[in-house]
Amino acid sequence: QSRASRVAQGILGLHFGGHLISDFYGGYNVIRGPHQRCWVYLLRDLHELQAAHAETAEVLTWAASVRALYDEGHTWLQAQPTPTAGECQEQYAVLLMRACALGEQYALTEHPCRNLAKRILRHQDELFQFVLQSAAPP
Question: Judging by DSSP bridges, how do beta strands 20-22 and 35-37 pair with one another?
Fold first, then answer.
């Protein structure tokens, strides 16, 4: 009947032992432990942003850059049969740095990309857990 944080807490407990994969709904923020935000939701919202601002080149470029970042992480994983923990951490750091730069580009401005830029910054540590943890899908 509800997706409130107390429901997630009641089902999973505060110290969920797995790798939580969820959308960007704030009710999941109370669950501690590894958390991968589902890229399907972010990619869908990027697509909607592009459709709404199809004539604005900087919106299209920014959204394409975010998508390219996801693709890079996913492609990197597929190209690495058995990456070491160090290699995964290094790739994660590169992706995280670039995601932060994209978020910072519009998070503090009145711009069509602002909400998604803020989302990227708010969940930056949870966007590329799939690079660190092979069991976590993007």
Answer: parallel
Residue 117, SS3 per DSSP:
helix
pLDDT single digits (tens) 54-64: 999 999 999 99
- Which residue, 36, 133, 125, 121, is CA-closest to 77? 133
52/61 Cα distance (integer angstroms): 14
Indicate the DSSP class of residue 16. -
Give this prediction's pTM.
0.88
State how far Cα 33 lies from the chain centre: 16
How does pLDDT run across 19-58, given as a tens digit for each residue?
888 888 887 787 787 889 999 999 999 999 999 999 999 9
Q: Which residue has tokens 């995964």?
A: 88
Angle of CA points 66, 71, 74, to nearest 5°: 130
